[in-house]
Amino acid sequence: MSNSAFFRLQQLISPSLPIGAFTYSQGMEWAVECGWIKDADDVYVWLDGLLESSVGALELPVLARLYHASQQQDVEAFSHWADTLLAWRETSELRAEECQRGQALTMVLDKLPDAAGWPELQQPEWREALGQTQLAGFALACARWNVDLEQALNGYLWSWLENMVIVAVKLIPLGQSDGQRVLYRFSDQLAAVTQQAMIVDDDDIGSSSPAMAIASSLHETQYCRLFRS
Which branch of life, at top level (predicted)? Predict the structure, then answer.
């Protein structure tokens, strides 16, 4: 992977990317409110479960397929996998998050000098898929910038994990050092999550994370909250 591709990947996974990632807790706010998550060990268990049941089994395999569809200029496959990911989101909050982040990333790409000229950003079918999930824009940008697929998956995985730990630090609250220890505990297993996601068959893609779905549903009517989901 070239230096420019590496640094553009860092831009895509940066917490400063203006797509509003910091405004979502994916149900964790309710999980903290009701006592499911109380300390750093609970955060690790919660996130480890999501890695196995959702991120590694659904998001990363779908991201890989969106990446290949972008490379092959296959808008039908691109739209299919964007639709598939959105259909797997169990609550209105989680679906709204997918669409809001997808639309926000599309707006960012619209304003980048080289990306603004990509034909995909001008065509309705592509834009509809891009507006359904952040993964679509992420995959398109990585394919266009020649980011290696495995590194793209690793980058997205780390970005998701870091954002969730930041959420936990704010909500529980955890100390910054506790948050870093949680991230460190995951560092040895993330590469294996990516490699497994790259060999998942189409028929095996899916998510089963009932605790997150319950927490997200209850968060929709939570009286006092900091996060949008």
Answer: Bacteria
Q: How many distinct structural domains can be found in the chain? A: 1
Contact partners, residue 68, CB within 8 Å, separation at least 6: 74, 77, 149
- For the domain that residue 153 is a member of, what is the CATH number? 1.10.4190.10
CA dihedral 129, 95, 21, 64 (to 10 degrees): -50
Is position 201 within any domain? yes
Mean pLDDT over residues 123-148, rounded? 97
Does residue 97 lie within any of the structural domains?
yes
- Residue 24, pLDDT score: 84
**The total number of residues written for the chain in this structure:** 229
Cut 0.90: pTM above it: yes
24 is a domain residue: no
CB 158 within 8 Å of CB 190? yes
Res 106: pLDDT: 96
Residue 228: its pLDDT value, please?
66
Nearest to 219 by CA among 33, 23, 21, 20: 33
**SS3 of 19, please?**
coil
Question: Is residue 46 domain-resident?
Answer: yes
pLDDT score of 229 more than 70 = no
C-alpha to C-alpha distance for 59 and 88, rounded to whole angstroms: 10
CB 90 within 8 A of CB 215: no
Buried b (16+ CB within 10 A) or exposed e, 68-101: bbbeeeebebbbbbbebbbebbbbebbbebbebb
